[in-house]
Amino acid sequence: MGSPKVIVQLYPVIPSEDEDDRREKRPIGRDSDLYNKIVHEWTDIVKAADEMGVWGMSTIEHHLHSEGYEVGPNPGVLNAYWAAHTKNVNVGAFGYVMATQDPIRVAEETAIIDHLTNGKYFVGFARGYQSRWTNILGQSSEAVATGSDGSSGDLKNREIFEERVEMVLDCWTKDSVELKGKYYEAPYPLKTGIEGYEGHLIAREAGAEGEVDDNGVLRRISVVPKPYQNPHPPCFVAVARSRATIEFAAKHGFRPSYFNPTDSVVELAKVYVEESAKYGRHLLYGQNQNLVRHTRIAKSTDDFDRKIRGYDLDIFKNFYSVFGNHNVDPVNQDAEKAFAEMKRTKFFLGGTVDDAIKDWKEIYSKIPCEYITLIWHWAQHPKDELLEEMQLFMEKVIPELETPDYSLAAE
């Protein structure tokens, strides 16, 4: 038996005294002094997590959050910086929103970070659900934010997502590629190739095979550098509730990261094992899978309520409850209704240490995932309390949880 690997995912929330204070300081997301303080104290948390034996540190790709809820526009920069200040912890992000990204740029950036970390790096891919920025940054392909609702926008978003993720894989693993997609192609224009490239002679003689044809036309591209890890860094993919995402993850050996309620995770986890076997990966139940949860550890029930009211209620009421993919009922801007919904759904697990152990043992009796990802709203959640909770989780909760012996899985 083993223990789950813990990933700490911090959502960078610019702190305010309360919701009214957030309004008073609008747009708090552009407060450079506060952000500067947060981003450097964030490194202190990463260093502490490294010392605690946390497996991974992660963040998000979200843009344009002027109200200050999730100011995380460039995870790669943070990952590279953290790697220079840590020894053992893996770094990564959940994840690159591929409908808004150029696949070549993602392949290049992630390969460089893989080298900077000497292989202590993982990559996450996500589809994107927030129209404020997904529709803007995805405008070149007319991608739109969507939930897994089967709509035409949903299907198009998935097409773009899968097309670009597979292009990243090709760029990582092949010396030269021709990217021929419905929404993206390279070289461009693909039909004619790139004519008149002045450096075609040395590219044909010293570049990748087939990159330049006998007429000096660029016909393929070679994305450099190649990743440090072979064939590429471990990949995680965000899952809300879609079987199609699980099938895609199983096809490529990606680690699904479940943001959905436990009972639906159980069903999707079974699908993942079954689908993985079709591609020759015979996994144990829970292996290669990641359960994402908000967990708060407090001194008492009253202290637990104080924490989620002070650090989480604002964002839950005004943000999570209005997006359909968070699996909670609308609260219609009612703070007390939001608080009741947070407690009813166990959107935030825990309470005392004993409560947290009970919650997690119940989950692991149903689905013993190889990875656990814990989310905190840093820095609305103060650093000292966050570190205390992280330490308690690592020292008190993790020893109570067991995963299967994955070495028993058939090759």
Describe the structure.
By secondary structure, the chain is α/β, with parallel strands linked by helices. The chain folds into two domains: 5-175 and 224-312 and 346-408, Luciferase-like domain (TIM Barrel); 185-221, no CATH class. Helices cover 41% and strands 12% of the residues. It is built from 14 helices and twelve strands. It has helices at residues 19-24, 32-52, 75-83, 103-116, 131-137, 152-173, 200-206, 243-252, 262-277, 301-311, 313-318, 335-344, 353-366, 383-397; strands spanning 5-10, 56-59, 90-93, 96-97, 123-126, 179-180, 185-186, 235-239, 255-258, 290-297, 348-351, 371-376. The radius of gyration is 22 Å and the shape is globular. The two termini are 18 Å apart. The model has no long low-confidence stretch (mean pLDDT 94).
